[in-house]
Amino acid sequence: MRNLTCIVCPIGCPLCVDEDAGGNLSVTGNRCLRGEVYAKEEIRAPKRTVTATCRIDKEDVSVKRIPVKTASPCPCEKIPALLEDIYKLKITLPVKAGDVLITDWKGEGINVVATRTFI
């Protein structure tokens, strides 16, 4: 048995996940189907939205790094490699919030986008 707190909505349901001998998961404590989906994914293939900063390719600006994030969740085991690629990235200004800076990272369907506008 594993206990989780659902983070899909603000209710924060306490979830209990049990696995039977056949490997099937059963979830209790959820108030909606999204909680069940979240719990099963969290046990089998956890993913996270990644936030970080990357460098600006300009010396004469007051801001040296810009905030970025993934547009979709990344599998937890691949986060270190993704962060390594983000930290290698150098951005040329101007950049607008929502601009895609890395497209389809390593064929995973994960885009990295700017979260602020810099001119």
Compact description:
The protein is of the alpha+beta class and 119 residues long. The chain has helices at residues 33-44, 79-88; strands at 2-5, 14-19, 25-28, 47-48, 51-56, 65-70, 74-75, 90-91, 100-102, 112-114.
Structure overview:
The chain is of the alpha+beta class and 119 residues long. The chain folds into 2 domains: 43 residues, no CATH class; 67 residues, Roll (CPE0013-like fold), CATH 3.10.530.10. Helix content is 18%, strand content 32%. It has 2 helices and 10 strands, in the order βββαββββαβββ. A 5-stranded mixed sheet has the order 8-5-6-10-9. A hairpin with an 8-residue loop joins strand 5 and strand 6. It is elongated.
Number of folding domains? 2
Order of helices and strands: EEEHEEEEHEEE
CATH superfamily of the largest domain: CPE0013-like
Which residues sit in consecutive blocks of at least 5 with pLDDT less than 50? none
CATH fold-type name of the largest domain: CPE0013-like fold
Distance between the termini: 51 Å
Computed Rg: 19 Å
Total strands: 10
CATH architecture annotation name of the largest domain: Roll
Q: Report the β-strand fraction as a percent range.
A: 25-35%
What structural class do helix, strand and pairing data support?
A: alpha+beta
Biggest sheet: strand arrangement: 8-5-6-10-9
Largest sheet: 5 strands, mixed
Query: What kind of oligomer do you see?
Result: single chain
Counting DSSP H or I runs of 4 or more residues, the number of helices is 2
Mean of all residue-level pLDDT scores: 92
Percentage of helical residues? 10-25%
* CATH class assignment of the largest domain: Alpha Beta
Shape, please? elongated
